Give the backbone structure.
Amino acid sequence: MATFTINMKDGSLQKDRDIIIGIDLGTTNSLVAYIKDGEAVCVPDEQGKNVLVPSIVHFADNAAVIVGDAAREYLISDPGNTIYSVKRLMGKSYKDVADIKGFFGYKIIDEDTDSLVKIKVGERFFTPIELSAHILRTLKVRIEQILGSEVSRAVITVPAYFNDNQRQATRDAGKLAGLDVLRIVNEPTAAALAYGIGLDPSERETIAVYDLGGGTFDISILQIHDGIFEVLATSGDTFLGGDDFDKAIIHDWLDQLGMNEVQLHSNKSLSQEIRLQAEMAKKALSSTDNFTGMVAGEAVSMTRSHFETLIAPLVERSLNNCRQALQDAQLGVDKIDKVVMVGGSTRVPAVQKAVAALFEKPVFNSVDPDQVVALGAAIQADVLAGNRRDLLLLDVTPLSLGIETVGGLMDVIIPRNNKVPSKAGRQYTTSVDGQKNLRISVYQGERDLVENNRKLGEFVLGGIPPMPAGLPKIDIQFILNADGILTVKAKELRSGLAQEIDIRPSYGISEEDMARMLLDSIQHAQSDMKIRGVLEARNEANNLLLSGNKFLQQNASILSPEETEQTQTLLQQLKEATQTEDKDLIHQAIETLNDYTSPLAHRAMDVNILKAMKGSKI
Ligand code: ADP
Ligand code: MG
């Protein structure tokens, strides 16, 4: 399928380099979609049947890499060489995943707690980025076979709560798979787009996106206006999904068979068999009332109503997350205009019923919940390709971005919930005479002190020409691109010295951490404000101490011994005040010193002006 466009400048025909594809890189399943004859469609396998590619990578003995359905077979027979759920590890350090490592059937390597995790397969080590790239490559090949031409540009979706690290890791995985990732899009945003929500820039609405996948649950509340998708709140459970529904059935059947879990786990083929049957039963019960199957040569059965009883506590857990998100967004259910269902597990009728009841409205479920995110990604890709003009889709940044200033204070440059892409800057100066280097440390978070926020990276602007403190003008710019990736630029304006970095943070944070950071900022607002007050007073005092001592040195000849002594005493008192936590005391000492020294400063100025005039010739 070759398309041509006309270059409006010179009228020449140009072959479109390629189309832009949309990819849902899921924890359980991944899909690729594109716009075919004006409509978004997901690409099926060679048999034209299944659009889902299980996000599983198997390394065979002969070093072959197998992805998808074929890899799934090895989950139980060869778990050490079969990697699943790698999305959970994207952009994370060993420290981040230490408490969930028991979940994985493969080896996660602990080399250095702060660096990104690696996975050991045989004698080789892989990063989650490389493993995700294998999945992306499979999707790329799949669509290239259908189109009969190469594709190189893509939009990839990620959960709304993914931080910069996780987004960057996803982007890197794309690059490794030979894809130029034009945009990283939030999954709930893509789901909304698949329903056409947000495509009309004049509409303004608030929607909830309920995403119950294989192993994770996310609820996002989005406000959409002027083509901007603002994430008002996200909540969820990283260990709640369709797998838990399967497990509920397995436990019930074990009882029916008179077996326990130890017996089950000691028998690999039985584990495999019962798991497959349980998933089959679950899926069947989404459309029928009864399921009968065979496990270990014995009949097992499940009715829909019994299944609903088994999963009721799990569904309730997801509802609690929804309530939490509503509360975080400070919205009642009446303020939610639409509820969009995403993820294979929302096919379960009891789930749909419970969500509709909680939000007091029918849910949007007409688009296939497995495909909805990928279809939305294809629509976003189409927008980027320029096929839907006048449409710019934007997201917002979930946490504030800023730098550390004197005393460990967080100075926010791009506030939380600012729309993306965005650009902001501020000017700073040095705090020490002749300072040659300025360390710029970039943080993410809502607390007033950087030590309570998360460090994203740092760099040194070196080689500043020696100048008195306060004279250099250092302009710091934050540029947040459409994927939420940050570039920080620093420039000393007097000398033109400049430096910049792309933030590739050294380790990631989990969504729990992010939620905790937000919560902490609210809980500590009061004490933070107090500490900020003290630190600001202390900074002011330190500047004054510096200039006060300099003043004494430079003007010794015009001050009386009493004046010098009194100034020294007041400077000493100020210095002592800075060592307390009492901001009022510091302010008082600053005032006393200022009051006493300002007539002296005036006198010194007059003398210096006279001296200067005497020396100058007319
Ligand atoms: P993820 O976003 O985590 O990659 P998916 O959205 O692909 O996951 O959801 C996968 C889950 O959906 C699996 O647990 C699967 O068993 C479940 N699922 C798929 N179809 C059905 C169905 N008809 N009824 C119930 N659950 C289903
Ligand atoms: Mg998903």
